[in-house]
Protein backbone atom coordinates (compact mmCIF):
# COMPACT_ATOMS: atom_id res chain seq x y z
CA UNK A 1 0.00 0.00 0.00
CA UNK A 2 1.55 3.31 -1.03
CA UNK A 3 1.61 6.31 1.30
CA UNK A 4 -1.11 8.27 -0.49
CA UNK A 5 -3.50 5.31 -0.49
CA UNK A 6 -2.82 4.81 3.22
CA UNK A 7 -3.71 8.44 3.92
CA UNK A 8 -7.00 8.11 2.04
CA UNK A 9 -7.87 4.96 3.96
CA UNK A 10 -6.97 6.34 7.39
CA UNK A 11 -8.20 9.94 7.32
CA UNK A 12 -11.77 11.25 7.00
CA UNK A 13 -12.34 13.18 3.78
CA UNK A 14 -12.99 16.53 5.48
CA UNK A 15 -9.82 16.58 7.56
CA UNK A 16 -7.09 19.03 6.52
CA UNK A 17 -3.75 20.34 7.73
CA UNK A 18 -2.63 23.94 7.72
CA UNK A 19 0.69 23.97 5.86
CA UNK A 20 3.23 26.75 6.30
CA UNK A 21 6.34 27.15 4.14
CA UNK A 22 8.77 29.75 5.54
CA UNK A 23 11.46 30.82 3.10
CA UNK A 24 13.99 33.61 3.06
CA UNK A 25 11.84 36.07 1.10
CA UNK A 26 8.28 34.77 1.43
CA UNK A 27 5.91 32.73 3.56
CA UNK A 28 3.32 30.51 1.88
CA UNK A 29 0.28 29.07 3.65
CA UNK A 30 -2.36 26.61 2.45
CA UNK A 31 -4.82 23.97 3.54
CA UNK A 32 -3.86 20.47 2.38
CA UNK A 33 -6.31 17.56 2.38
CA UNK A 34 -5.82 13.78 2.61
CA UNK A 35 -5.37 13.58 -1.18
CA UNK A 36 -2.49 16.07 -0.79
CA UNK A 37 -4.40 18.64 -2.81
CA UNK A 38 -3.53 22.25 -1.98
CA UNK A 39 -6.36 24.69 -1.21
CA UNK A 40 -6.66 28.38 -0.28
CA UNK A 41 -3.00 29.08 -0.97
CA UNK A 42 -1.73 32.46 0.16
CA UNK A 43 1.73 34.02 -0.02
CA UNK A 44 3.30 36.84 1.98
CA UNK A 45 6.36 38.66 0.70
CA UNK A 46 8.76 39.38 3.54
CA UNK A 47 9.76 43.02 3.81
CA UNK A 48 11.25 45.15 6.55
CA UNK A 49 9.53 44.26 9.80
CA UNK A 50 10.01 43.46 13.45
CA UNK A 51 9.92 39.96 14.86
CA UNK A 52 6.36 40.33 16.11
CA UNK A 53 5.32 42.34 13.07
CA UNK A 54 6.23 39.42 10.85
CA UNK A 55 4.32 37.01 13.08
CA UNK A 56 1.23 39.25 13.05
CA UNK A 57 1.25 39.25 9.25
CA UNK A 58 1.46 35.45 9.14
CA UNK A 59 -1.21 35.04 11.81
CA UNK A 60 -3.44 37.50 9.97
CA UNK A 61 -3.32 35.27 6.91
CA UNK A 62 -3.66 31.96 8.77
CA UNK A 63 -6.53 32.87 11.09
CA UNK A 64 -9.30 33.21 8.46
CA UNK A 65 -8.08 30.04 6.72
CA UNK A 66 -8.74 27.88 9.78
CA UNK A 67 -11.57 29.75 11.49
CA UNK A 68 -14.39 27.93 9.69
CA UNK A 69 -13.04 24.38 9.75
CA UNK A 70 -15.33 23.28 12.60
CA UNK A 71 -13.04 20.67 14.13
CA UNK A 72 -11.61 19.42 10.84
CA UNK A 73 -8.13 20.84 11.39
CA UNK A 74 -5.76 17.94 12.06
CA UNK A 75 -2.87 20.21 12.96
CA UNK A 76 -0.24 22.54 11.57
CA UNK A 77 2.79 21.49 9.53
CA UNK A 78 5.67 23.96 9.24
CA UNK A 79 8.57 23.78 6.82
CA UNK A 80 11.12 26.48 7.55
CA UNK A 81 14.51 27.64 6.42
CA UNK A 82 17.01 26.77 9.11
CA UNK A 83 18.65 26.22 11.37
CA UNK A 84 15.92 24.70 13.52
CA UNK A 85 15.85 24.12 17.27
CA UNK A 86 13.51 21.13 17.47
CA UNK A 87 13.98 20.65 21.20
CA UNK A 88 12.26 24.00 21.85
CA UNK A 89 10.15 24.25 18.68
CA UNK A 90 12.01 27.31 17.44
CA UNK A 91 13.66 28.54 14.24
CA UNK A 92 16.58 30.82 13.38
CA UNK A 93 16.47 31.18 9.57
CA UNK A 94 19.87 32.38 8.37
CA UNK A 95 18.29 34.87 5.98
CA UNK A 96 15.63 36.16 8.42
CA UNK A 97 17.82 37.82 11.07
CA UNK A 98 14.87 39.20 13.06
CA UNK A 99 13.94 35.63 14.04
CA UNK A 100 16.48 33.99 16.32
CA UNK A 101 15.18 31.00 18.28
CA UNK A 102 11.72 32.25 17.40
CA UNK A 103 9.11 30.01 19.12
CA UNK A 104 7.16 29.23 15.96
CA UNK A 105 5.63 25.98 17.24
CA UNK A 106 4.15 27.59 20.35
CA UNK A 107 2.88 30.51 18.26
CA UNK A 108 0.96 28.18 15.97
CA UNK A 109 -0.34 26.13 18.88
CA UNK A 110 -1.80 29.28 20.38
CA UNK A 111 -3.21 30.42 17.04
CA UNK A 112 -4.73 27.11 15.98
CA UNK A 113 -5.76 25.65 19.32
CA UNK A 114 -4.07 22.41 18.24
CA UNK A 115 -1.19 20.75 20.06
CA UNK A 116 -0.37 18.85 16.85
CA UNK A 117 2.21 21.21 15.34
CA UNK A 118 5.08 19.58 13.41
CA UNK A 119 8.26 21.42 12.41
CA UNK A 120 10.62 20.47 9.58
CA UNK A 121 13.30 22.19 7.57
CA UNK A 122 11.96 23.51 4.27
CA UNK A 123 14.13 21.16 2.21
CA UNK A 124 13.09 18.25 4.43
CA UNK A 125 9.50 19.12 3.61
CA UNK A 126 10.34 19.13 -0.10
CA UNK A 127 12.07 15.76 0.23
CA UNK A 128 9.08 14.29 2.08
CA UNK A 129 6.61 15.51 -0.54
CA UNK A 130 8.67 14.38 -3.51
CA UNK A 131 9.23 10.97 -1.91
CA UNK A 132 5.51 10.39 -1.43
CA UNK A 133 4.03 12.10 -4.47
CA UNK A 134 6.74 13.39 -6.81
CA UNK A 135 10.11 12.72 -8.38
CA UNK A 136 11.40 10.59 -5.48
CA UNK A 137 8.65 7.96 -5.63
CA UNK A 138 10.01 4.44 -5.40
CA UNK A 139 13.33 5.35 -3.80
CA UNK A 140 14.13 4.09 -0.31
CA UNK A 141 16.75 6.80 0.20
CA UNK A 142 16.98 10.25 -1.35
CA UNK A 143 18.37 13.73 -0.96
CA UNK A 144 16.09 16.71 -1.54
CA UNK A 145 17.67 20.09 -2.28
CA UNK A 146 16.20 23.59 -2.41
CA UNK A 147 18.22 26.25 -4.23
CA UNK A 148 16.66 29.70 -4.18
CA UNK A 149 17.50 32.68 -1.96
CA UNK A 150 19.37 30.12 0.14
CA UNK A 151 20.38 26.49 -0.28
CA UNK A 152 18.96 23.70 1.89
CA UNK A 153 18.88 19.92 2.02
CA UNK A 154 16.58 17.21 3.35
CA UNK A 155 16.99 13.45 3.65
CA UNK A 156 14.81 10.38 3.33
CA UNK A 157 16.56 7.36 4.87
CA UNK A 158 14.92 3.93 4.63
CA UNK A 159 11.63 5.58 3.64
CA UNK A 160 11.54 7.92 6.63
CA UNK A 161 12.29 11.60 7.05
CA UNK A 162 15.71 11.85 8.70
CA UNK A 163 16.01 14.95 10.88
CA UNK A 164 19.18 14.20 12.81
CA UNK A 165 19.58 15.07 16.48
CA UNK A 166 18.59 18.73 16.19
CA UNK A 167 16.41 18.79 13.06
CA UNK A 168 19.14 20.08 10.76
CA UNK A 169 20.38 16.98 8.94
CA UNK A 170 21.88 17.71 5.51
CA UNK A 171 22.49 21.42 6.04
CA UNK A 172 23.96 21.33 2.55
CA UNK A 173 24.06 25.07 1.88
CA UNK A 174 26.52 25.61 4.69
CA UNK A 175 29.09 22.99 3.82
CA UNK A 176 32.41 24.76 3.30
CA UNK A 177 33.79 24.05 -0.18
CA UNK A 178 36.41 26.83 -0.14
CA UNK A 179 37.97 27.48 3.26
CA UNK A 180 39.52 30.74 2.00
CA UNK A 181 36.25 31.79 0.39
CA UNK A 182 34.00 34.73 1.03
CA UNK A 183 32.29 35.06 4.40
CA UNK A 184 28.78 33.58 4.43
CA UNK A 185 25.84 35.04 6.33
CA UNK A 186 26.10 32.00 8.62
CA UNK A 187 29.54 33.13 9.79
CA UNK A 188 31.64 30.52 7.96
CA UNK A 189 33.76 30.98 4.86
CA UNK A 190 33.21 29.55 1.41
CA UNK A 191 29.87 27.83 1.94
CA UNK A 192 27.98 26.25 -0.96
CA UNK A 193 25.36 28.99 -0.57
CA UNK A 194 27.97 31.74 -1.11
CA UNK A 195 28.32 30.56 -4.72
CA UNK A 196 25.11 28.68 -5.50
CA UNK A 197 22.13 30.73 -4.29
CA UNK A 198 20.26 32.98 -6.71
CA UNK A 199 21.11 36.31 -5.02
CA UNK A 200 24.75 35.34 -4.60
CA UNK A 201 25.12 34.44 -8.28
CA UNK A 202 23.64 37.83 -9.17
CA UNK A 203 26.04 39.61 -6.79
CA UNK A 204 29.05 37.74 -8.17
CA UNK A 205 28.05 38.56 -11.75
CA UNK A 206 27.62 42.24 -10.87
CA UNK A 207 31.05 42.28 -9.24
CA UNK A 208 32.43 41.12 -12.61
CA UNK A 209 30.76 43.89 -14.57
CA UNK A 210 27.41 42.34 -15.46
CA UNK A 211 24.65 44.99 -15.46
CA UNK A 212 21.70 43.15 -16.95
CA UNK A 213 19.42 43.34 -13.90
CA UNK A 214 19.06 42.50 -10.24
CA UNK A 215 17.49 39.04 -10.18
CA UNK A 216 18.49 35.51 -11.08
CA UNK A 217 15.74 35.55 -13.72
CA UNK A 218 17.61 38.43 -15.40
CA UNK A 219 20.93 36.61 -15.09
CA UNK A 220 19.53 33.42 -16.61
CA UNK A 221 17.96 35.38 -19.48
CA UNK A 222 21.31 36.98 -20.33
CA UNK A 223 22.99 33.58 -20.11
CA UNK A 224 20.54 32.23 -22.70
CA UNK A 225 21.52 35.15 -24.92
CA UNK A 226 25.17 34.17 -24.66
CA UNK A 227 26.45 36.65 -22.07
CA UNK A 228 29.81 35.23 -21.02
CA UNK A 229 29.76 36.56 -17.46
CA UNK A 230 26.24 35.21 -16.86
CA UNK A 231 27.13 31.82 -18.33
CA UNK A 232 30.31 31.57 -16.27
CA UNK A 233 28.71 32.54 -12.97
CA UNK A 234 25.80 30.12 -13.43
CA UNK A 235 28.27 27.37 -14.30
CA UNK A 236 30.26 28.11 -11.14
CA UNK A 237 27.10 28.19 -9.03
CA UNK A 238 25.98 24.86 -10.46
CA UNK A 239 29.40 23.37 -9.71
CA UNK A 240 29.24 24.61 -6.11
CA UNK A 241 25.86 22.93 -5.66
CA UNK A 242 27.15 19.78 -7.33
CA UNK A 243 30.01 19.64 -4.82
CA UNK A 244 27.57 19.90 -1.93
CA UNK A 245 25.39 17.20 -3.45
CA UNK A 246 28.28 14.79 -4.08
CA UNK A 247 29.74 15.37 -0.61
CA UNK A 248 26.38 14.44 0.90
CA UNK A 249 25.76 11.44 -1.36
CA UNK A 250 29.26 10.15 -0.69
CA UNK A 251 28.79 10.33 3.06
CA UNK A 252 25.51 8.42 2.98
CA UNK A 253 25.79 6.23 -0.14
CA UNK A 254 22.62 7.66 -1.68
CA UNK A 255 22.03 7.89 -5.44
CA UNK A 256 18.67 9.68 -5.82
CA UNK A 257 18.54 13.49 -5.74
CA UNK A 258 15.55 15.78 -6.30
CA UNK A 259 16.26 19.48 -6.70
CA UNK A 260 13.75 22.32 -6.51
CA UNK A 261 13.57 26.02 -5.74
CA UNK A 262 13.41 29.19 -7.78
CA UNK A 263 16.86 28.87 -9.35
CA UNK A 264 15.96 25.52 -10.92
CA UNK A 265 13.06 27.11 -12.80
CA UNK A 266 15.61 28.66 -15.18
CA UNK A 267 15.53 25.44 -17.20
CA UNK A 268 18.37 24.00 -19.28
CA UNK A 269 20.65 27.00 -18.79
CA UNK A 270 20.96 25.84 -15.17
CA UNK A 271 20.26 22.11 -15.42
CA UNK A 272 22.86 21.39 -18.11
CA UNK A 273 25.83 22.58 -16.01
CA UNK A 274 24.36 21.07 -12.85
CA UNK A 275 24.02 17.62 -14.43
CA UNK A 276 27.48 17.91 -15.98
CA UNK A 277 29.17 18.87 -12.73
CA UNK A 278 27.35 16.22 -10.69
CA UNK A 279 28.52 13.61 -13.21
CA UNK A 280 32.09 14.94 -13.22
CA UNK A 281 32.40 15.18 -9.44
CA UNK A 282 30.88 11.73 -8.89
CA UNK A 283 33.64 10.05 -10.91
CA UNK A 284 36.06 10.36 -8.03
CA UNK A 285 33.92 8.49 -5.52
CA UNK A 286 34.34 5.06 -7.08
CA UNK A 287 30.79 4.02 -6.15
CA UNK A 288 28.39 6.85 -7.08
CA UNK A 289 28.07 5.65 -10.65
CA UNK A 290 24.30 5.69 -11.09
CA UNK A 291 23.12 8.99 -9.64
CA UNK A 292 19.53 9.87 -10.51
CA UNK A 293 19.22 13.68 -10.57
CA UNK A 294 15.70 14.98 -11.10
CA UNK A 295 13.83 18.28 -10.89
CA UNK A 296 10.95 18.50 -8.46
CA UNK A 297 7.62 17.42 -9.92
CA UNK A 298 5.56 19.35 -7.36
CA UNK A 299 7.38 22.62 -8.01
CA UNK A 300 6.15 25.53 -5.85
CA UNK A 301 3.76 23.33 -3.86
CA UNK A 302 6.38 20.80 -2.74
CA UNK A 303 7.21 22.63 0.49
CA UNK A 304 3.56 23.05 1.44
CA UNK A 305 2.67 19.43 0.70
CA UNK A 306 5.70 18.21 2.63
CA UNK A 307 4.90 20.43 5.60
CA UNK A 308 1.35 19.06 5.63
CA UNK A 309 2.61 15.47 5.42
CA UNK A 310 4.29 15.97 8.77
CA UNK A 311 0.80 16.18 10.24
CA UNK A 312 -1.09 13.89 7.87
CA UNK A 313 1.09 10.79 7.85
CA UNK A 314 2.85 10.98 11.21
CA UNK A 315 6.31 10.35 9.69
CA UNK A 316 7.72 13.30 11.58
CA UNK A 317 8.89 14.68 14.89
CA UNK A 318 6.29 16.35 17.08
CA UNK A 319 7.92 19.01 19.22
* Class derived from helix and strand content: alpha/beta
The order of strands across the largest sheet is 3-2-1-4-7
Distance between the termini: 28 Å
The number of helices is: 10
Q: SSE order, as H and E?
A: HEEEHEEEHEHEEEHHHHEHEH
| CATH hierarchy: architecture of the largest domain | 2-Layer Sandwich
The level 1 CATH classification of the largest domain is Alpha Beta
Strand content: 15-25%
Low-confidence stretches at least 5 residues in length (pLDDT < 50)?
Answer: 315-319
Predict the CATH topology of the largest domain: Nucleotidyltransferase, domain 5
The count of β-strands is 12
- The helical percent reads 25-40%
Whole-number count of domains? 2
Largest sheet entry: 5 strands, mixed
Q: What's the gyration radius in Å?
A: 19 Å
Give a verbal description of the structure:
- This protein has about 325 residues and is α/β, with parallel strands linked by helices.
- It has two domains: about 130 residues, Nucleotidyltransferase, domain 5 (2-Layer Sandwich); about 160 residues, Nucleotidyltransferase, domain 5 (2-Layer Sandwich), CATH 3.30.420.
- It contains ten helices and twelve strands.
- The strands form three sheets. A five-stranded mixed β-sheet has the order 3-2-1-4-7, sandwiched between helices. A five-stranded mixed β-sheet has the order 10-9-8-11-12, with helices on both faces. A two-stranded antiparallel ribbon has the order 5-6.
- The C terminus is likely disordered.
Amino acid sequence: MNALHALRKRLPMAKVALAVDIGATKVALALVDRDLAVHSKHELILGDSTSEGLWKAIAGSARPMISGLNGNLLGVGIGSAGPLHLEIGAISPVNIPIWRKYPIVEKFRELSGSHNVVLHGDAMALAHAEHVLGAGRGSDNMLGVVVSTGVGGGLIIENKVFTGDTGNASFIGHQTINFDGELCVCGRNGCVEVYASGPRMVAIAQSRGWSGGNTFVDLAADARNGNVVALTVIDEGARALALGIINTLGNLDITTVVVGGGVTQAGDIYWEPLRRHVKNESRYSGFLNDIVLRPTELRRDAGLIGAALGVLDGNSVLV
